[in-house]
Amino acid sequence: MQLLMSPASPFARKCRVLLREANLLDTVTEVTVSTSPMAKDATVGAANPLGKIPALLRDHGPAIYDSRVITRFLDEHAGTDFYPASRLYEVLTLEATADGMMEAALAITYEARMRPAAQQSTDWMDAQWHKVMQAVSAIDARWMSHLTGPRDMAQIAVACALSYLDLRHDARGWRQGHDALAAWFAAYDQRPTMRQTAVSA
């Protein structure tokens, strides 16, 4: 199988971390592509009509896309338990929260990179950052017991989201007032699978 991805994409990174955690690198090849909302890669477009990464080209069956779909598939394929039935909806909810953070942070990145300075809306970017910080505050206040519990996909998703904030929006300072989450991330970010998939600005 082939995972169409970009190293800087936090959504692709979720899949890349899981590939390593589940020991699937012998089964899935990572294929780096260059795509954006304004310039879609033809291979990605053939796999995903939305033109987004990641997308997983399977040996049998059509390509699948959306990081949450891919990670569920990979977890089942590997026979691992990153979506445990006993707390499935907690995992899915926290993963969705992390994905929402990524979406808002990416929106800020695209606004700054793809629109002329005169057309950029600081109010809109600030509104996206407010979403990010609402999620950070909620995780710090309500989800730390989950993050420090048995391994699951939600932990990977939150770590990838926070790492993306550091990569693209470090100056905004998400750690301020969120000591528990910052301490958890500092430790989790040292996992070999996180180090192996890290990118620099």
List keywords for this structure.
Glutathione-S-Trfase_C_sf, Glutathione S-transferase, N-terminal domain, 201 residues, transferase, transferase activity, alpha+beta, Glutathione S-transferase Yfyf (Class Pi), Chain A, domain 2, GST_Omega/HSP26, Glutaredoxin, four-stranded mixed β-sheet, 6% strand
What topology does this entry show?
Blueprint: E1 2-5, H1 10-21, E2 29-32, H2 42-47, E3 55-57, E4 64-65, H3 67-78, H4 88-114, H5 122-142, H6 144-147, H7 153-169, H8 179-188, H9 192-196
Parallel strand pairs: 1-2
Antiparallel strand pairs: 1-3, 3-4
Radius of gyration, whole Å:
17 Å
CATH topology of the largest domain: Glutathione S-transferase Yfyf (Class Pi), Chain A, domain 2
Main beta sheet: strand number and arrangement?
4 strands, mixed
CATH 2nd-level architecture of the largest domain: Up-down Bundle
Q: What is the mean pLDDT?
A: 95
Distance between the termini: 29 Å
- Write down the secondary-structure element order: EHEHEEHHHHHHH
Q: Number of DSSP strands?
A: 4
Strand order of the largest sheet: 2-1-3-4
The helix-and-strand class reads alpha+beta
Shape: globular
Report the β-strand fraction as a percent range: 5-15%
How many structural units, i.e. domains? 2
Oligomeric state of the chains present here: single chain
Q: What percentage of residues falls in helices of 4 or more residues? A: 55-70%
Number of helices: 9
Q: So what's the CATH class of the largest domain?
A: Mainly Alpha
